[in-house]
Amino acid sequence: MINLNVNHKSYQIDADPDMPLLWVIRDIIGLTGTKYGCGVAQCGACTIHLNGEAVRSCVTKLSRGAGQEITTIEGLSANNNHPAQLAWNEENVPQCGYCHSGQIMSAAVLLREKPNPTDQDIDDAMAGNLCRCGTYLRIRKAIHLAAELQKKEGGTS
Amino acid sequence: MNGISRPLKNFKPSKSVMVMGVLLYLVALMAFSMNHHTVLKKEPVPFVVKKDSVASVKAFTAVYKVLMSPRCMNCHPQGDIPLQGDDSHLHTMFPKRGMEGKGVLAMKCANCHQPTNTPGLHTPPGNPNWHLPPANMKMVFEGKTPRQLAKQLVDPKQNGHKNMQQLVEHADDGLVLSGWNMGEGRTLPPMSHAAFKKAWLTWLSTGAYAPKK
Question: Distance (Å, rounded) from C-alpha A135 to C-alpha A91?
Answer without folding.
Answer: 11
